[in-house]
Amino acid sequence: MRYHPPGRKRGARKKAEAFAATFEKECRAGTTSDSRLKFAEYCDYVIDLKEQRGAKHSTIVLYKGLTSRIYPAIGHLKLKDIRADHLNSFYTSLSKPGQNKRTGGGLSAKFILEHHRLISTVLDQAEKESLVPFNVAHKATLPRLERREVAYFQPEQVEAIRDALELEPVKWRTLVHMLLITGARRGEILGLKWDKVDFESCKIHICNNVLYSADRGIYEDSPKTATSNRFVTLPLETMKLLRKYRAWQNEERLRLGEYYQYQGFVFSQDNGNPMHPDSVTTWLDRFSKRHDLPHINPHAFRHTMASMLYFNGVDSVSISKRLGHAQVSTTANIYAHVMEEADQRNADILADVFLKKA
Fold this sequence. Notes:
The chain is mostly helical. 54% of the residues lie in helices and 6% in strands. The protein has helices spanning 12-29, 39-52, 57-75, 84-94, 109-128, 155-165, 170-182, 186-190, 236-256, 277-290, 298-311, 316-323, 328-334, 336-355; strands spanning 197-198, 203-206, 209-213, 217-221, 230-233. The strands form two sheets. It has a three-stranded antiparallel β-sheet, with no helix packed on it. A hairpin with a 4-residue loop joins strand 1 and strand 2. The termini are far apart.
């Protein structure tokens, strides 16, 4: 089953494939004419090309979803006729009320930039294939992206969460513990399998990701980036909890019998299948309300772990490696305000040690 964005006919896929085959044949023969190529048909070709060359399924789904707004705006324009003002007008329209179907407001600057990145990707390919002299998207005026400071839990909040978890089932107690200690993404924790847990070395190998899409349902994929495939060292307390949880899981497998189809997942549904990623978010939301805790989302644990490491003097390279970021600069940019706060604390410590009298 293929994903079909709203407003696109099911025949669009076959049409795109036929166009791609004809277009590639013309490219090889050197007879391609840019005068007839419109953005929509060429975009379909580029998306198919990305898919054939191994782009992640989540990326392809995102691209196809973005076209539902892009095509009505510029899909009818020929590649060579697209100007920066066309793009500027489109980006401005996306910020107007009514574009966000959920809230009724405009789209966020971040989501508008997603539309721009797809358009730019398509025009980059057109430039490579000499269909346009340059990528006009580089001349567009983009919405200003205001970087939000990451939200993380204070030590007393972490303690309250840990106390509340003691009243919860061992499965969820262990899952939330892993989110906090590893700093791993939600899908990475759900993709973890027992054969990737090294009890002797106190390490886990993060090399699998559980995702959801409307066309595939729940599925497995590699982590977000190549560097996301990593080993993470865990404290002895965590390994002890994992052993306790594994014993409980084995008892459940025996109790459920044939209903439970073992697939090796550390955390799974009652029948052994991988968990829906949103089930973690839903459980945490209900958990926080049950225990009168601040709102909790899985990514907040990731930010909390990174922040606590910064506050305890750990360098960006080590933190970036643990988080699985592709570049250290990504980590530094995300946690810039945390680093600044940590540096201020270091200054206060130095003042206490060297400058203030006992």
